[in-house]
Amino acid sequence: MLITGASSGIGRELARLYASDGAGLVLIARSEDKLRQLADELCANHGAGAQVVPADLSRPASPREIVEALAQRHIDVDVLVNNAGFGARGSVAEIGVERQLEMIEVNVAALTQLTALLLPGMLERRRGAILNVASTAAFQPGPNWAVYCATKAYVLSFTEALAEEVRGSGVRVSCLAPGPTDTGFAA
After folding, report:
1. Is residue 148 among the annotated active site residues?
2. 3-state SS, one letter per residue, for 97-151
3. Which of 57, 132, 135, 148 is flagged as catalytic?
4. Which of 54, 131, 137, 143 could connect to 149 by a Cys-Cys bridge, CB 3.0–4.6 Å?
5. What is the pLDDT of residues 137-148, one digit of tens each?
6. What's the DSSP call for residue 184?
7. Is the pLDDT of residue 175 over 70?
């Protein structure tokens, strides 16, 4: 099982839940120190094996590098949790184009790439699952959150379409759309 954005918030809690069920994990986030602390915690509390793959998903090359690292470690991913994401508050004119493009890279492009790179193996094995984390922001436009809301609408639409594409294949695709959650997101 691979979880992006695993070092904090929803990703960290999902890692803890899956580890308590005995899942072997691959933890992805920028902060190697936080990932190693989480891996140690999961091993100590649940006996779960957790591989750490630090990656900055705002870099377009990161998804391919992650998949290459998995291949080198002979890891097949049967469950992909596309959780990594962030939002920047402010008007489109104020935020700055670079920050907006980073948001699109993390929230949309990396999620799409990881799915496209890992899905063929799941289909070949006729088993697997993909959980894409969107937000209730996916269901509404958000002034001063325009790019964030648009990226989460993409995640929702992409997930619904992909679920239809893989129907009957043994691969399940679903979307989690949480509302306001007590994580570091607001900070």
Report:
1. yes
2. HHHHHHHHHHHHHHHHHHHHHHHHHHHHHCCEEEEEECCHHHHCCCCCCHHHHHH
3. 148
4. 137
5. 999 999 999 999
6. G
7. yes
Question: By C-alpha distance, which of 70, 56, 72 is closest to 26?
Answer: 70
Structure tokens at 56: 């900055």
- Cα 129 to Cα 91, 95, 152, 181: the distances in Å are 36, 35, 19, 24
What residues contact residue 19 under an 8 Å CB cut-off, 6+ apart?
A: 25, 42, 45, 46, 48, 50
- Tell me the DSSP string of 7-67: TSHHHHHHHHHHHHTT--EEEEES-HHHHHHHHHHHHHHH---EEEEE--TTSTTHHHHHH
Please give the distance of CA 152 from its chain centroid, rounded to a whole number: 12
pLDDT (tens digit, 9 = 90+) per residue, 68-100? 999 999 999 999 999 999 999 999 999 999 999
